[in-house]
Amino acid sequence: MRRIGVVATAAAIGLALTACSGGGDGGGDGDGGDGGGDGGTDVEVFTWWAAGSELTGLEALEAVFAEQHPDLTFVNGAVAGGAGSAAKDLLQTRLQAGDPPDTFQAHAGAELTDYIAAGQLEDVSDLYTEFGLTDVFPQDLIDLLTVDGSIYSVPSNIHRSNVVWANPTVLESAGIDPTAVPADIDAWIADLEAVQATGVTALSVATTWTQVNLLETVLMADLGADGYVGLWNGDTDWASADVTTALEHFETLMSFTNTDRDGLDWPEATQMVIDGTAAYNVMGDWAVAAFEEQGVERGAGFVDFPVPGSEGQFGFLADSFTLPVGAPNPDGATAWLETVGSLEGQVAFNQAKGSIPARTDADPADFSEYQQSAIESYANDAIVPSLAHGAAAPIAVLNAISDATSKFTTGGSDLATYQEELAAAVG
Ligand code: GAL
Q1: Which of 48, 107, 111 to mutate to test the pocket of ligand 1 (most atoms within 8 A of CB)?
Q2: Which residues form the signal peptide (predicted)?
Q3: The whole model's pTM is what?
Q4: Are 392 and 386 in contact (CB under 8 A)?
């Protein structure tokens, strides 16, 4: 199991200041020169941060880019659909057609390894030296971006996947103390029953990927960190009784959810908690940006806690940006990577996005109370890789698990078949 510390060091801060000092004076471009290549001044940035608080986060990064590289033009290539549910397929089509964007979002871990193995990414190790990034990211995160000694992307942030968001007013109406965190999934189910008895949706969820996000957190809760990690390294048997118990819990949790779920994406499911039409939502901590953007305060307006039973685990995922082979404007993409890796870029982006900086030299005091709790959890808890967000398994495995999950939650398979299909998906 990986342990990643978040420790600011004087050396790292010094490097950060040096690396960022180029800023708006046109410096810091290395020998390439912004927009000096054949690609002109446009830089197409491909993400799935197309709307709402995710777009706000991207715009915060875009603003720093405009400041640091005023001679370049940010072109928003975002494709809507949470977790890249539509973007990743479209990206693959473009990459295979030899029509890559200048840079694209990819998750650290197995997902990134897919692109590397397909020969779709340039080695950006030299940029780490040029921009002084080598020592400012946790080594274990860099390891997830590295294959055979070469680094293939620059991380922008770290998110946590195993968080419950709840509406305290709704909980109180059901006789539940919002400050009391259920000890495990069974205790939580008792609370869900109490909410359901009041006629409010107990647990909101959305389309398939959010159901997979819920599934991974139940597996974390029921199997523990070692057991969960074992699902991905072969040490835990997918056919085991422990996995059956977790799947039964997942089935029960899904029975408390809104029936229109398959037509929704995460913002609508989280909005139900904000609006008080649902008590709980399990979502990665990009959700906190939705609460904050609407002025809903932690404590009075929402409460958050790790999925019951998964306390002490940090469901890890990180977004990163790449330099695709054949990018039309590699110099422009390089400038974008400089902004993504810069302290200023990471602070502005993560303040808006709800995630925590990947850089270890950011000051926790610049972030919200929730984010400070995430920084602490990241420093102290067991880091376990997210399935739904590319850290744990290759894209093909995630796709197979998603198909099996969708089939199960729409009534197309029973639990035994579901478990067999999950085992077959991981192989
Ligand atoms: C994740 C991504 C996050 C957030 C989320 C919802 O895969 O890493 O940054 O955007 O999807 O769309």
Answers
A1: 48
A2: 1-21
A3: 0.92
A4: yes
